[in-house]
């Protein structure tokens, strides 16, 4: 069994590596605090109503079921709710939390490595102080730029938080084997494992790897591990029950983002993973180029990846052999393949068929194997070499994080490195559109639609941008395609309705607005439906829709103004005045509201108030001749 560290001197010796590691991690990620919400963050944070409150707990512990990053992951969702309570949609607290998670995971890995390197299985073979080598492994892992997606990307804390609970489960298990009389360590191991199960599905492998660690580094055999710690291993396995409930509660497909029967066969996905696994290993050793989104592509023929497939089979065979004959390197191979198995084998994750963040935990095995192997080969020269490598990785991480500084920069970088990613082109187009570069945005949307047949979002954004350009007939073509492909795409339904109104076809627009309201009851949909109804002369129905829009979003000025005009035209002057006053309460410099309220007051015979509002409107629009005429009428009314 690994020796126990006791006494203040041992604790003091252990303090400085931990402090140094924390400082290095904090410095490497210090330039991320201004990184905006990107990619999956929109669904996980900006459009996630379940994180808007902390109480009752059932709300943040019930993430949306639509297939976003937090679906079926209540612990992650609750952590985002904590951030929202602290800073709303200001990104700094989210990044601070992610940094602390990663630093804590690095410290847990440091503790695991330090104790593992002092185990009988390695102590005699290495013949060196475990502390410096353990620090080197933890630093290389924590500072590796392959980790940036899991740390800098806010929604990808699913990976880093799960990684933290995974490492804590193993660390507490190790502490429990060193101090069997202390019951707190097994309890903490099970608690960490349980929290991990509520964080990400990959945690399903943790009880297996803890058992394998027990056999490899502590007990010496599975039989001995089972005999000595059967209760603990069973307790860890029992955490599969809540995970199974979470998976089944989501229909087994995480909101149609993972599983069979979602348009990707297990065989084509497996072939893609042959490419992915070799890429992950290459990026572990040479982290360039790093890509935020590889898209959703799969491989149809084994002939396309036969070389990678043979390499993966060879590595699996070597791992199986090593588990029997060389348990320590075998454990590293098993750590790599077992942790990647849920995401990188036969169960298709259709939203992302390949992703760098999946290497968050497996990277530890690669780094540890290389570092320990280097120690065996190079001896005392190993640590200086690892120090130089860590310094290089530190710089590369800072540089990579700088690429995340804006959505435009990161998506431009992604398209440059992975031009066949339809989703990357779509997101770049969205940013170009936001920046006013519509022609270039249209080019990206068109390319995205060509790269991925049936890409609803590409056709929607293409059509919506054409509509902004005033190219109504072309917009109608793309928006009709989007609605045909995705009838449940609320934004596409709304945009098609708007395009039909612009094309003077309001009767055809009405059903699309009504469908939008079925999918997403929102103020803008009610308002646009009202506009179409007014075009058709259906005034009473339009008034109802405007009222609904105002109730949902009192700050929607166009709806308040349109409703006020309708009410005034029907003789309900005081009701009209109330809506105009509501506009002015929110926006005192709204000239139209002052002018219209002046008109209403004049019709009511309240000329003095009319003068006040006309004068206010003229201060805002001094060249408006109609306002001057109305002001003069109001003053004449006062003189009578």
Plain-language structure description:
This protein is an all-alpha fold and 640 residues long. It has a domain at 7-403. The chain is built from 31 helices and no strands. The protein has helices at residues 7-28, 41-46, 74-87, 92-117, 120-126, 130-143, 148-152, 157-178, 184-197, 206-219, 222-238, 240-249, 266-285, 306-325, 327-340, 362-378, 382-403, 407-417, 422-434, 438-451, 456-468, 472-485, 490-502, 506-519, 523-535, 539-552, 557-569, 573-586, 591-603, 607-620, 625-639. Helix 14 crosses helix 15 (327-340) and helix 18 (407-417) packs antiparallel against helix 19 (422-434). The longest helix is centred in the first third of the chain and has 26 residues, at 92-117. The termini are far apart. Mean pLDDT is 93; it is low at 1-8.
Classification by helices and strands: mainly alpha
Please summarize the sheet with the most strands. none
Please count the helical segments: 31
Question: Mean of residue pLDDT?
Answer: 93
Number of beta strands: 0
Helix content: over 70%
What amount of the residues lies in strands?
A: under 5%
- In whole angstroms, how far apart are the ends? 104 Å
Radius of gyration: 31 Å
Shape type: elongated
Unreliable residue runs: 1-8
Distinctive features:
640 residues, mainly alpha, elongated, disordered N terminus
What would you say about this model in short?
By secondary structure, the protein is an all-alpha fold. It has helices spanning 7-28, 41-46, 74-87, 92-117, 120-126, 130-143, 148-152, 157-178, 184-197, 206-219, 222-238, 240-249, 266-285, 306-325, 327-340, 362-378, 382-403, 407-417, 422-434, 438-451, 456-468, 472-485, 490-502, 506-519, 523-535, 539-552, 557-569, 573-586, 591-603, 607-620, 625-639.
């Amino acid at each position: 069994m690994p020796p126990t560290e006791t006494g203040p001197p041992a604790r003091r010796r252990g303090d400085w590596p931990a402090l140094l590691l924390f400082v290095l991690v904090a410095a490497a990620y210090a330039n991320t605090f201004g990184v905006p919400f990107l990619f999956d963050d929109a669904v996980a944070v900006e459009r996630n109503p379940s994180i808007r409150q902390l109480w009752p707990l059932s709300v943040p512990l019930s993430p949306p079921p639509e297939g976003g990053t937090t679906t079926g992951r209540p612990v992650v969702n609750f952590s985002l709710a904590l951030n929202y309570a602290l800073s709303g949609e200001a990104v700094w607290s989210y990044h601070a939390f992610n940094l602390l998670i990663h630093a804590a995971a690095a410290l847990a890995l440091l503790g695991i490595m330090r104790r593992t390197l002092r185990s009988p299985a390695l102590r005699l073979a290495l013949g060196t102080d475990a502390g410096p080598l353990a620090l080197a492994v933890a630093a290389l892992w924590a500072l590796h730029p392959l980790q940036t997606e899991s740390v800098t990307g806010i929604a990808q804390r699913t990976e880093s938080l799960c990684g933290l609970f995974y490492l804590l489960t193993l660390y507490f298990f190790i502490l429990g084997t060193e101090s069997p009389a202390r019951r707190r360590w097994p309890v903490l191991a099970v608690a960490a494992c349980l929290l991990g199960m509520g964080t990400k599905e990959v945690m399903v492998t943790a009880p297996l790897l803890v058992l394998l660690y027990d056999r490899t580094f502590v007990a010496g055999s599975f039989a001995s591990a089972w005999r000595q710690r059967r209760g603990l291993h069973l307790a860890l396995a029992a955490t599969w029950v809540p995970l199974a409930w979470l998976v089944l509660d989501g229909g087994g497909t995480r909101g149609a983002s993972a599983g069979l029967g979602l348009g990707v066969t297990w065989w084509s996905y497996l072939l893609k993973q042959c490419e992915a696994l070799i890429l992950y290993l290459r990026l572990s050793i040479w982290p360039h180029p790093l890509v935020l989104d590889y898209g959703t592509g799969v491989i149809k023929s084994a002939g396309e990846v036969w070389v990678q497939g043979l390499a993966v089979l060879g590595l699996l065979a070597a791992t199986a052999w090593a588990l029997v004959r060389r348990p320590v390197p075998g454990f590293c191979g098993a750590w790599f393949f077992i942790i990647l198995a849920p995401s990188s084998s036969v169960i298709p994750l259709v939203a992302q068929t390949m992703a760098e963040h999946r290497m968050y935990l497996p990277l530890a095995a690669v780094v540890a194997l290389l570092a320990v192997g280097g120690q065996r080969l190079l001896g005392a020269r190993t640590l200086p070499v690892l120090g130089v490598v860590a310094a290089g990785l530190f710089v590369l991480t800072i540089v990579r994080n700088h690429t995340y500084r804006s959505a435009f920069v990161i998506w431009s970088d992604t398209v440059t490195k992975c031009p066949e990613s339809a989703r990357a082109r779509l997101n770049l187009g969205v940013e170009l559109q936001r920046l006013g570069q519509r022609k270039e945005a249209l080019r990206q949307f068109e390319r995205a639609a060509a790269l991925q047949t049936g890409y609803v979002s590409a056709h929607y954004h293409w059509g919506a941008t054409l509509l902004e350009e005033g190219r109504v007939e072309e917009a109608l073509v793309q928006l009709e395609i989007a609605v045909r492909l995705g009838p449940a795409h609320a934004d596409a339904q709304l945009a098609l309705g708007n395009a039909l109104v612009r094309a003077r076809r309001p009767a055809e627009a009405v059903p699309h607005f009504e469908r939008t309201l079925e999918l997403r009851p929102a103020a803008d949909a009610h308002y646009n439906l009202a506009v179409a109804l007014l075009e058709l002369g259906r005034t009473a129905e339009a008034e109802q829709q405007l009222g609904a829009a105002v109730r949902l979003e009192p700050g929607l000025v166009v709806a308040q103004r349109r409703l006020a005009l309708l009410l005034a035209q029907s003789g309900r002057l005081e009701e009209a005045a109330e809506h105009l006053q509501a506009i002015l309460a929110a926006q005192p410099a709204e000239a139209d509201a002052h002018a219209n309220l002046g008109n209403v007051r004049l019709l009511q015979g309240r000329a003095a108030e009319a003068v006040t509002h006309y004068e206010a409107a003229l201060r805002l629009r001094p060249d408006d001749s109609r306002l001057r005429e109305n002001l003069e009428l109001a003053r004449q009314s006062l003189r009578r």
